[in-house]
Amino acid sequence: GSGADNDLYINQAVVFIEDAIQYRSINHRVDSKSLWLYRWYYSRTCQWMLSLTITMILALAFVEEPSSLTATSDVRYRLPPWNPPCGLTESLELLCLLVFVADVAVKSYLIGWKEFWKNKWLLAYIVTLLVSLADCIVSLSFSCTESFRIRRILRPFFLLQNSSMMKKTLKSINRTLPEMASVLLLLAVHLSLFTMFAMLLFAPTKDNQQDKEWVVYFRSLPDSLTSLLVLLTAANNPDVMVPAYSKNRAYAIFFILFTVLGNLFLMNLLTAIIYNQFRGYLLKSVQSSLFRRRLGIRAAFEVLSSPREAPACAQQSCVSARALQQVLQKVVMDSRCKQTIMRSLKMCPCDQLSAAQFQKLFEELDKEAIKQHPPSPEYRSHFMQKLQFAFGHPYFGYLGNVVALANIISICVVLVMDADKQPSERDDFFLGAINCFFILCYLLEMLLKIIAMGLRRYLSYPSNRFDGLLTLILLILEIATFALYGFPHPGWRPEFLGLLSLWDMVRLGNMLIVFRFLRIIPNMKFMALVVTTLLDLVKNLRAFAGILVVVFYAFAITGIILFKGAVIPLGNTRMLSKRDLLLGSAALLSLQSSIQHVEWGEKNVLSRCPALLYLLSVHLICRWAKIYFIAWWLISSVIWVNLFVALLLENFIHKWDRRCHRASLSDIEYQRTVELMFRDVLEEPTEEELMEKLQQHPHLQLGR
What is the C-alpha to C-alpha distance for residues 127 and 687, in angstroms, rounded to an integer? Predict the structure, then answer.
């Protein structure tokens, strides 16, 4: 019995430490069977299967009717898309829903019945599944002929509920909305006042020829409000002011005042408020994550320390180093962290660990070691040592950058000279010879660097891997070009052979060479800082990107439902009623009259024909369609872009401060994870807070 209890305590500690690593809640069942199920559920295999299921159910929208599997989206030229037979996508969706049913069942069991009723996300999960299953059954009963499928709009919820960071980010955004509402209300007042001014300023007169501004943009209150709202996005600037400006230059003052107050002041004020408020709520979220990590580590300490320990621990709780070693052997964690903790544990002079010592060992989880590069090879030959010094010196890298710049300039010169020539008149000799010469230079540079640094050290640098990969691709492409078309020579214009023409292969090589020029970024400190900031956002702000996918997906499905069949191919007017044709003709005449006095009007209209066709078709459906596009603009452009700017600023300022104020040696050896971007301003939870939270655990009974 004692051996079984010890195994249970060890397994509990293992799960609690894994919860701390992943910032998971520890409020779940802790008996032996539940712990096995819990670890299986959060294993890589199970989570990978769940992620694959979510991807599959979201991807169904690309093949369901109306299918997107066409080469072009232009309704005038595309062929009828392939529509799957009834029951195919529905069967795949039912399979995915069954996986989600199993998922919610396991989650509900693991947290317990009492905690289940407190979890709003699980309750919403069950409601979403019930509605989706019912809707899928309805589709099958109607032989897939129904036009509205509510389950398609609900699909992004499965992605949202599967990520704790996405839920935290969404909660932070939700708490930021009241502060955003005050500025949005001020923006609405700004729009309303200028709308009334515009209707008074551009009111119709006796001279109909001078009323183009009123006819096109300010004919009614909805049209006026829409015109100024679009002007706020700068999408119709300067088109909206051209008729009035043609009549009197003084009318430009109205549009300048509107743009300055709206775009320069109110929109930037909204960015500042979102940055300030969202940063505070994000800080609280990160503080909560830190508390979860410390709580998981403390829970592991508590289950390992009990009266069964030696009498020396009677006065103070402690854990034996041997028990912790058994736990670490079972924990799934980063090998570097595990090795560092094991090394620190072996160096510890005492055999018993206090709570503070136990917690300090796991502070290694908050750090990410900078990768140590392998050493360079040691040559005995004096000549090889000189070569190693010369080609391993930073100046050799600068020389490679100069060569890459010369290659870019030479390509630009040749492209400018051949810009006006027809493909039959173009001579690819010079460009082919230039590419051949520089590719040999890149290959020589790569080989010399490998000799100087050694292959392992060379590959340990991302910039070298980037260079080497592109150099090998260019070399293979050049060899294929020579095999198909021979060596460059004057009049090098052979016929099309193989998969790509000569010009296509040369052009592909030039694009790779231009892309290779990005190697200069690490050598420019400020540019490198900007790029690393963007890369950190891409790598670590997956929760933010996930919510963005949810928003895009939901609006895309809603748009399909609302505007299905709205875009009518040119020449197909049989689907329009007589009133629709009159409205369309009036809209086109209004547009034509608005550009009569503009020299660039003809090119502008021709370049916007596809967009005009689409907007005209939507206009013919219903004026209420504006609500959809305004909602999309508010969420995607106003709120979401400003949130992204806020996170970008926070990440950049954090990196800039670290660059300008180099801290202690530990900051040079270690780099904080992005989850703890605010680590310097976070507060460590007290022992009383941790113990109070542990005492409230619904399934864990502590011995003290």
Answer: 39
Q: Are 147 and 564 in contact (CB under 8 A)?
A: yes
Distance CA 423, CA 435 (A): 19
Tell me whether residue 113 is in a domain.
yes
Phi/psi at 694 (5° precision)? -65, -35
| Domain membership of residue 61 as a residue range | 43-162
Specify whether the CB–CB gap between 481 and 425 falls below 8 A: no
HSE-up (13 A, CA, CB side) for residue 312? 8
**Number of helices followed by number of strands (H, E) in the chain:** 32, 4
pTM (predicted TM-score): 0.71
Instruction: Return the pLDDT at 57.
Output: 92
Q: Give 130 or 76, the one with higher predicted confidence.
A: 130
Domain boundary among 235, 270, 286: 286
Average pLDDT over residues 3-12: 82
146 plus 177 within the same structural domain: no
- If asked whether residues 494 and 557 sit together in one domain, one would say no
Are 219 and 276 within one domain? yes
Residues 406, 504 within the same domain: yes
Element (H, E) at 670: strand 670-672
Q: Are residues 49 and 115 in the same domain?
A: yes
Confidence check: pLDDT of 687 > 80:
yes
Looking at 228, 262, 286, the residue that finishes a domain is 286
Contacts of 471 (CB under 8 A, 6+ apart): 439, 442, 443, 446, 516
Mean pLDDT of 491-498: 55
Mean pLDDT (whole number) for 461-488: 80
When comparing pLDDT for 489 and 450, which is higher?
450
Range with the poorest average pLDDT among 245-254, 355-364, 481-490: 481-490
CA torsion sign for 587, 589, 590, 591 is positive
pLDDT for residue 598: 40
Domain count, the chain: 4
Residue 364 lies in a domain: no
SS3 352: strand
How many C-beta atoms lie closer than 10 Å to residue 281's C-beta?
A: 18
CB contact set of 526 (below 8 Å; sequence gap of 6+):
none
